[in-house]
Structures are given as structure tokens and as C-alpha cells.
From TrEMBL:
Family to which the UniProt record says this protein belongs: Belongs to the citrate synthase family.
An example Gene Ontology CC term for this record: mitochondrial matrix
InterPro entries: Citrate_synth-like_lrg_a-sub, Citrate_synth-like_sm_a-sub, Citrate_synthase, Citrate_synthase_AS, Citrate_synthase_euk, Citrate_synthase_sf
GO molecular function, one term: acyltransferase activity, acyl groups converted into alkyl on transfer
Keywords for this protein: Mitochondrion, Transferase, Transit peptide
Residues the record marks as active site: H273, H319, D376
NCBIfam families: cit_synth_euk, PRK09569.1
The name this protein goes by in its record: Citrate synthase
């Protein structure tokens, strides 16, 4: 059985050839126009970066190497005793474009578990941070500091060849992913349950099985399965989203993967991006506090209007690319619908009822181009139901997941020899001059 690294090594030459052909035969082919609205509108819609593992269709949603979420749920191996696809099997697909066997996925779990222990100085660093520091800030600090042991950085200092970049990047990326559960769980324990003993990493468990254990929810099989699905689903959302794009940009300077991913986490920590999942819970709880548990559709409508009229966004709705309900939202809703105990939860019912009225309200409001829910509209409510109620922590879980896609592209960018990212900017005066002269 081939390992992930060996499989990757096999697929790299064909991709290198594909890029070479694009460069030599199609470098001048035109794939779109740049309009002023792109430049002043956050580059929305501009096709201008290479990203291998997934492509987002506005109506169909995300495809990982062509596979939809339901396809992945069918073919990607689960953990022993589980049903949901694992983070490892998703990583394998993202990195290689191939579906791993159960054996390959298990071997990768073992490798990650064997590399998952945090260096003592990282534990001390995290333990020294104030409990009041946002968990996402702590996660970014921890990830950046892990670069103390960066293989890429030390090989670069010694003068490695460009052809060796990807191998050292790969080593760092695997170590980073392996250490994320212990780092993220330590932050949770310190902030919310200080003083309780954190268990050791279990060499026989998958990444998420270990993460759930370290968080202190080891016996909770339902939460573990939900987290497996959650972490596989959030793994990649093509390259233009703010966190993936940040990792790509920073990585293009040849900063090592720890620094690149730390920067990505701070993009994820913004309320228009990953922090929206904590904001959804906060928004819902404020509504429940005001209106009680059995909220009606009309009351939700009124609350939505109140939010919009006060100039705030409705968290969990809208998207920079999607123009339909996010298939990740649908997959998580289906997880709920298959479990009666979840459907009985007032928090989960509120998500469902909000979905039944919010698109019409947002259409009538007339601003957002996409009045439908994104994944954040539902991702937190199941965590809440299963006892992980501290919603300021939710984006950290997203941060553990998004590493799958970000590290995949870091490896590919170095294997393909992609250059420093450096777009041309213009001032408004320069833009006006250009418009006049065109
Ligand atoms: N509630 C109220 N107004 C909205 C919403 C919303 N959910 N979504 C977009 N708008 C507004 C937006 O603020 C903008 O207003 P203005 O012209 O005054 O600046 C207008 O509608 C047009 O925006 P769009 O072009 O539809 O959206 P854009 O691509 O700029 O932004 C988001 C995408 C996701 C940032 C935006 O929809 C939003 O703020 N949503 C709420 C926050 C959220 O759920 N973010 C999570 C995204 C997913 N993730 O996990 O990262
Ligand atoms: C993501 O998962 O990154 C979000 O849906 C945001 C995006 O794709 O722009």
C-alpha cells in the first residue's frame, strides 16, 4: 500500500507537465475581462488564481476534484466504527485527486497521531496566554510558533534546490496538521475548563477522534461523528476565500507553512468569514432571549427586519460566490434530520425555521446577491446541542478544518514552482486616467 507522500510523488509529474503546457501553449489565451467593478468590488468574480483541489460553482456548490459532497460521503472511507468521512480521507482526496482505501486512510491516521504531540514550549506558550484572549488569536499564535521546527525554513537556510521545496513543505504541512488537535484542544481546555487533565493522544484513533477526546468529549460518539463530517466539509472551498487566499499569498513569499497558515487563521477570524459561525449562535440566542423558545415564523421575520434595519448583516446568509443554499448547509441539515434527538432541539429548530423565512426577507430587502444560507447558518447549532456550547470557540474548529485545503495548495504551489503573488494595484486617479485613455 502506498503512503500519501508516495502517492503524491506519483501524481506530481503529470501536473507539472500540465502546467508547462499551459505556459507554453496557452499563456496568451484570454479567459475574461477586468472591469472597474472588479477592482473596486473586492475582486469578486475575477478568475485570477490557480487552486488545484476544489472548484466552487455558484449554483451547484463545492466540488473536490470533481466530487460533490454527497459523492464524497459515498466514497471516502470513514473511521473504524463510524459512518462519516474522515479528515484524513478528505486530505488524501484533496492532495492527490484519488480516493484512498480504508487501509491508506488508517495509516495516515496513525502517522498523524504519532506526530501529534505538542513541543513543551508551545504548551507553555499557550498556557501563558490570558484566558480572555479570543481562542482564534491564541490558535494563530500557536501555529506561528510551531515554525520553530520548520523543515522548510532550515533547509532554505542551508540552500536547498527548488526541486526540493515541496518535500520540506509537505513535511511541515503534515506536522502542522498532526499538531492542530492538541493545540486547538489545549486552548479550549485553558479557556473553558482550566485545571482538568488533558488525555494523551491515542495512536489508534483518527485525527478527529483524537481531537474530540482531547477537548474532553471522548465518550460522545455523536459529537465525534458530527465533527468528522464538519471538518471534512469545511476543508476546502476553492482558493479565493479570504483564509485560503491569505495562506496562498503568504506561502508564495516562501514563508514556511506554519507562518502561511497562521496568517490564514487571522483572515478566518473576521465576522464576514469564519467568525460568522459564532455570530449565528450569538444572533440566535439574542432572538431566543427576546422572544422565548417557541418562536413563530412571523416573529423571526420581524427579528430579521430589525437586524437589517439596524444596519447589521444577517449572519450565516449571503456569499461571495454561491447563489443557492450552500450544499454544506444542506449536508449538515441532513445530519440533523437523520437524528430525532437533534430535531427536538429548540436551537436546531430555530435554524430550520429561520431558513424557511430568511430568503424571502433578504430578497425583499434587496441588497444581498445571495439570499440563501451558507454553512455557518447551521454549523454551530449541533455543537451547541451536543454540549460544546462555548460559541467563541467555534471558529477554531473551522480553523482546524481549513488547514486541509490550505496545506494541500501550499504543497502544490511549491511542487509546481508557482511564483510570488503580486497583483498590480491602482490609485483612483490612476484608474480614471486609464479609463480616459481606453
Ligand atoms: N445580511 C444583510 N446584508 C447582506 C448580507 C446579509 N447576510 N449579505 C450581503 N449583504 C449586503 C452586503 O453587506 C452589501 O451591502 P452594501 O452594498 O451596503 O455594502 C450588499 O448586500 C451586497 O453584497 P453581496 O455582493 O451580496 O455580498 P458580498 O459578496 O459582498 O459578501 C458576505 C459576502 C458573505 C460577506 C455577505 O453575504 C455577508 O456579510 N454575510 C453575512 C456574514 C456571513 O455569513 N459570512 C460567512 C461567509 C461564509 N464563511 O464561512 O466564510
Ligand atoms: C468558505 O468556506 O471559505 C466560505 O464559504 C467563504 C468563501 O468561500 O468565500
Amino acid at each position: 500500500t502506498k503512503t500519501l507522500r508516495e502517492t503524491l510523488q506519483d501524481v506530481i509529474p503529470a501536473k507539472q507537465e500540465q502546467l508547462k503546457k499551459l505556459k507554453t501553449e496557452h499563456a496568451q489565451a484570454v479567459v475574461g475581462d477586468i472591469k472597474v467593478e472588479n477592482i473596486i468590488g473586492g475582486m469578486r468574480g475575477l478568475k485570477s488564481m490557480l487552486w488545484e483541489a476544489s472548484v466552487l460553482d455558484p449554483n451547484e456548490g463545492i466540488r473536490f476534484h470533481g466530487l460533490t459532497i454527497p459523492d464524497c460521503q459515498k466514497v471516502l472511507p470513514p473511521a473504524p466504527g463510524g459512518k462519516e468521512m474522515t479528515a484524513e480521507s478528505m486530505l488524501w482526496l484533496l492532495m492527490t485527486g484519488q480516493v484512498p482505501t480504508a487501509e491508506q486512510s488508517r495509516q495516515l491516521s496513525q502517522e498523524l497521531a504519532s506526530k501529534g504531540q505538542l513541543p513543551a514550549f508551545i504548551e507553555q506558550l499557550i498556557d501563558s496566554l490570558p484566558q480572555t484572549l479570543h481562542p482564534m488569536t491564541q490558535l494563530g499564535i500557536g501555529v506561528a510558533a510551531l515554525n520553530h521546527d520548520s523543515s522548510f525554513q532550515s533547509a532554505y537556510e542551508k540552500g536547498m534546490k527548488k526541486s526540493e521545496y515541496w518535500t520540506h513543505t509537505y513535511e511541515d504541512c503534515i506536522n502542522l496538521l498532526a499538531r492542530l488537535p492538541a493545540l486547538a484542544a489545549r486552548i479550549y481546555r485553558n479557556v473553558y475548563h482550566p485545571g482538568k487533565e488533558i488525555p494523551a493522544i491515542d495512536k489508534d484513533l483518527d485525527l478527529v477522534g483524537n481531537y474530540t477526546n482531547l477537548l474532553g468529549f471522548g465518550g460522545n460518539k455523536n459529537l465525534t461523528e458530527y465533527l468528522r463530517l464538519y471538518i471534512a466539509l469545511h476543508g476546502d472551498h476553492e482558493g479565493g476565500n479570504a483564509s485560503a487566499h491569505t495562506s496562498h499569498l503568504v506561502g508564495s513569499t516562501l514563508a514556511d507553512p506554519y507562518l502561511a497558515y497562521s496568517a490564514a487563521l487571522y483572515a478566518l477570524a473576521g465576522p464576514l468569514h469564519g467568525l460568522a459561525n459564532q455570530e449565528v449562535l450569538r444572533w440566535q440566542q439574542a432572538m431566543q432571549k427576546e422572544l422565548g423558545d417557541n418562536v413563530t415564523h412571523d416573529q423571526i421575520k420581524e427579528y430579521l427586519w430589525k437586524t437589517l434595519k439596524s444596519g447589521q448583516v444577517v449572519p450565516g446568509y449571503g456569499h461571495g460566490v454561491l447563489r443557492q443554499a450552500d450544499p454544506r448547509f444542506i449536508a449538515l441539515q441532513e445530519f440533523c434530520e437523520s437524528r430525532p434527538e437533534l430535531m427536538a432541539s429548540s436551537t436546531i429548530q430555530l435554524v430550520k425555521k429561520t431558513y424557511e423565512v430568511a430568503p424571502d426577507v433578504l430578497k425583499e430587502h434587496g441588497k444581498t446577491k445571495n439570499p440563501y444560507p451558507n454553512v455557518d447558518a447551521t454549523s454551530g447549532c449541533v455543537l451547541y446541542h451536543y454540549g460544546l456550547t462555548e460559541y467563541k470557540y467555534y471558529t477554531v474548529i473551522f480553523g482546524v478544518s481549513r488547514a486541509l485545503g490550505a496545506i494541500t495548495q501550499l504543497v502544490w504551489s511549491r511542487a509546481l514552482g508557482l511564483p510570488l503573488e503580486r497583483p498590480k494595484s491602482l490609485s483612483m486617479d490612476a484608474l480614471e486616467k486609464l479609463i480616459k485613455s481606453s
